[in-house]
Automatic annotation (TrEMBL):
Protein name stated in the entry: Plasmid related protein
Domain of life the protein comes from: Bacteria
């Protein structure tokens, strides 16, 4: 987790792609991917990955 935080902080500073992970239920993760240019965000659920 600490490594992911550092990677996202570096992405903010350097303009890279960001990845966020959340739980929308105890066993259901949700992933958000922000493209480097911030033009789009992809939302992924486990059954779509």
């Amino acid at each position: 987790m600490a490594e992911d935080i550092r990677a996202d902080q570096a992405a903010i500073h350097d303009g890279g792609q960001m990845l966020s992970s959340y739980r929308i239920a105890p066993t259901v993760p949700l992933w958000l991917i922000n493209e480097a240019n911030r033009a789009s965000t992809t939302i992924l659920l486990p059954d779509k990955y």
